[in-house]
User: Fold these one by one.
Assistant:
Number 1:
Amino acid sequence: MTNSSDRGQRKSSVTAFVIFIALTLGFAFFGMKACVEYRGSKGVRLVLNHDGSRYLHSAFAKLSDAPSLLATRFTIYTDGSDVFVGVTDAERILAIAANEVTRVPKQEVAYDGYFVERSDHGYRSKNVVQPLKDGVQEVTYTITGETPNGKPWTLQYASSMENGMRAIENCEERSFFEVFNVTPGETTMNLVDNIVVSVTQLSELTGASFAFDREAGLLIIRPITSPSDG
């Protein structure tokens, strides 16, 4: 006959096992969530904070009735509290940080209008095809500018069919988690190498300030210069 002491021990063992499983699953879930939340790519919208007014980036900003659903989506990368942009977007972000934009006032619920970087902005990359070396031919991409105190800087990276992209100056290679659709209803998460530049670095180069509103999915840029609109 089983006494109450044995039943109590079995009950305690089952309870402990259930708690262990729950904690294991909980840590696994939050660990995966942390990977996606704090070290991965994100789609965001860009907001220009100009003299206290907020403008939303849209490729259609110059249209008189550009709706908010046409806001441009940019990809950024986060690693903890650090925020990065891909080098292929760097020239556009630099132009915005320098306030080389066209602003179109249009009162919306959350914004005062729309904006887009000028087509003639001064941060276009200069692309040079390098001579063939060890069977590899690279194209270098160079963006130049000056800090607010007049110190020249260069942002440069390279790309080749054989080796992909590599960082050269004022940018870096980092790995971020990205989610891929394998088949309908099935996804996988892998670490992917990217050439990026941190918004901290962009702030040092341009003097602009950057703020990431994680909840709203906004990257807010406050330039320090105010050239007239084109």
Number 2:
Amino acid sequence: MREIIEDLGAAFYIVLAIVILVCFFCVDLFGADYVTEGQAEILEKVYSPSETSTGTGVGVGSNGGTAIVTTTSHKSEKFILIVRKANNDIQSIECTPDYYYSKEEGESISISKKVGYLTGWTYKTIQTKKKNKTTSKRR
């Protein structure tokens, strides 16, 4: 085993460092927890429709010569709420279509953020959905 590591040299340690970093960020992200951030007021609702674009150009073909190349790109639709938090910070929050259409500008919503387990970094801010309260009646 020692000979293999010596033969690989610096490449082994570079690959090892990359693997350790990937594992670190996986643990940080997948171990992250949602923390309630508080209330926010909806300032604006922004809808960004899906978009597909096609372009052509000149590139290198499979035979090494020039060829016409066609490219296609696609963007999904987005439903975004622009909110003002209690500390007057303005932030955009991407949400589901159902949530987007159920809210109005000026309405107050609860928001949470996803905080890394090891780093404490904020990965994502989300709207907090209120759970439906169900009551059971005894007969």
